[in-house]
Write a structure and sequence with these properties.
The chain has 12 helices and no strands. The protein has 267 residues and is mostly helical. Helix 1 crosses helix 6 and helix 6 packs antiparallel against helix 12. The chain is elongated, with a radius of gyration of 19 Å.
């Protein structure tokens, strides 16, 4: 048992070293992420949720699923933003670390190994997700889209959503030699999911086949879970399924990324 504890502590220290590296880099680059991470979703919520939402509410006094459009939209934008942040942080930076700058290659020449690098990368994404989600949730409260207790409950949902995307996606650029497939990932996977997974309108408005496809996406499960919390309409059984689905993506994705990082960093 003592040897196991020593090994666990050593692993945690190694992962924290990778997170520390990302934090030092972010100290120099954070200004370039202010708009995409913080201001863009806030302005989007103001323009679509409040601006366009006033027309939606005017045309439909009963609201969308019984609430104002901004209250319906905000939880979806929260988790969709987590998806976008996690996807970006798990694509080009990973490609740079392995192929362009070879930062990750240098890391494994130290006592760190590929698992430490992959886990540290994911842990850093969790930090970025937490910072962005806290700001966005504060704006949701200011807009009247939720209250503080429900905002606190939605924070782990946003983080879990990001991890469900970051873990499997970080294995993808690690296996690529060029960045063209990453652009295709954004264009043909992330963007359609963003639009058709219930973020902007109920998926009941989609054809039956597309509803089934939407329900298979992790973003739909994230939207359903966050919206259920925000609107105080959470179905406990469905919430367990949503959380388990997202957790499975995160765990399996991390295991896959371990193998991919080990193979590519050893080349």
């Amino acid at each position: 048992p003592e040897a196991h504890r020593v090994k666990v502590r050593a692993t945690l220290r190694s992962v924290l070293r990778v997170v520390e590296h990302h934090a030092f880099v972010y100290r120099r680059t954070w200004r370039g992420t202010v708009f995409s991470t913080f201001l863009n979703p806030i302005l989007f919520l103001a323009a679509i949720g409040v601006g366009l939402g006033s027309f939606v509410d005017g045309a439909n006094p009963a609201g969308v699923e019984g609430v104002s459009y901004v209250m319906f939209l905000a939880p979806g934008i929260l988790v969709a933003t987590a998806m976008n942040t996690a996807t970006f942080e798990s694509t080009y930076p990973v490609m740079a670390g392995i192929r362009w700058l070879k930062t990750y290659v240098a890391m494994i020449l130290s006592p760190l190994d590929a698992r430490h690098v992959a886990t540290g990368q994911l842990a850093w994404v969790a930090v970025r997700l937490t910072l962005g989600a806290i700001v966005f949730l504060a704006v949701m409260v200011a807009f009247g889209a939720t209250d503080v207790p429900h905002a606190i409950l939605m924070l782990p949902v946003a983080i879990l959503t990001g991890l469900a995307f970051a873990a499997p996606i970080q294995a993808f650029p690690a296996a690529q030699k060029k960045d063209a497939p990453i652009a295709a990932l954004f264009r043909f996977v992330i963007m359609p999911m963003y639009i058709f997974s219930g973020t902007f309108f109920p998926i009941s408005q989609l054809p039956d086949l597309l509803q089934i496809v939407a329900m298979l996406t992790p973003l739909w499960h994230a939207v359903a879970l966050a919206r259920g919390i925000a609107l105080d309409m959470l179905d406990p059984a469905l919430a367990v399924v949503n959380a388990a689905y997202l957790t499975a993506f995160a765990v399996v994705g991390l295991l896959v990324s371990y193998r991919t990082f080990q193979r590519k960093l050893a080349e």
